[in-house]
Amino acid sequence: MSRNDFAGILAEVVEAREGGAGVVVATVIAAPPDGAVSVGAKLLLRRDGSTVGSLSGGPLEAAVVADAGEAFRRHAVETLFYASDGARLTRRGAEAESGAYQVMLEPHEPPATLLIVGGGHIGKALATIGDLCGFSVAVIDDRPEYANKERFPEADRVVCGDFAEALREFPIDDNTYVVTVTRGHKHDEVSLREVVRRGGAAYVGMIGSKRRVGAVLQHLLEDGLDPDAVGRVHTPIGLDIGAETPEEIAVAIMAEVIQVRRGGSGRPMQEVKKARRGVPPAERVEMEEEG
Amino acid sequence: MDEVFESMQRALSDGQAVVLATVAGTRGSTPRRAGARMLLRADGSFCGTIGGGCGEAEVRLEAQDVHRDGRARLVQVDLTNEIDGDDKICGGVMDVFVERIAPPDVRQ
User: Into which CATH architecture does domain A113-262 fall?
Assistant: First the structure.
């Protein structure tokens, strides 16, 4: 691979991280000594399936291209193992076989957006936690005293305006996590209607008690919104950790957002260990516990 | 944009090669997960972190070799052997891919 292939890949990576569509870079990080593809070879994959660079165009490359879609979905770096004919191996299988390749898949994309609809106590705590977790934080509220940079110094974007109008304008894609925590159910409903109508968000969650959120969802269905999209709304919002204060509720919400983003089970780690043995090797590498 | 890619771009546009260390995978308990990155310049300076401590120091040494010979390699950092006075308290293994990235060849 030429230096200029690398330069082209790097330029696209930088662009993708700054706000582009997102790309996946596959790098051969281990290869058999006599292999057709050598360590360091890189292939960049765009969302439309086009590529830059090469892993020599053989069966390995075809297999990697086919598996890269998964990396777009998981938003996490992972390493996959292949035999020279492109067959997927487990880590153990690769260690046993001398001719195995190890390929690192790295998604490069702009930071995910946490779109907080409602700038009250929970919104404030969410902005802090979301920023801490590496999200680009955006806040929408219709009250100038809540929707301002002084109240939300950690937010990249603060929009003051009518909820429905602001949400119509705001860019929402599969890297956007929308949390509706306004001061009242009317505002939550108006906001949720707009977000569900637009579709495309990675996550939509709405705060509220079971009874009240049930009524809101019923209204959306009566309005003729897609029942599948309505069914995907996370509400009541958050994981069950017994949260009481606004800050604790923000933690419970953020935990659910991360769970959706990373594909976790939401169960206590002490119960998860056994289940891991049942998951495919590609996912297992990523699920190894953290120190 | 994050520090690592920003410095990489700056170094490359100044015509300087850099070494990039990326955590490709982990087993057991490790300070950072796959995707953590550290950038190492030829003068020994660096930015970003793959978890600090002895594991990172090991990778920094390896990076100097990669700067010299340009050969990309996978370095296995074993944090399982706790030695007295050592800070490898995590107990896992990290696979770190270390590669040299040269500035584009402008003559072409």
Answer: 3-Layer(aba) Sandwich (3.40)
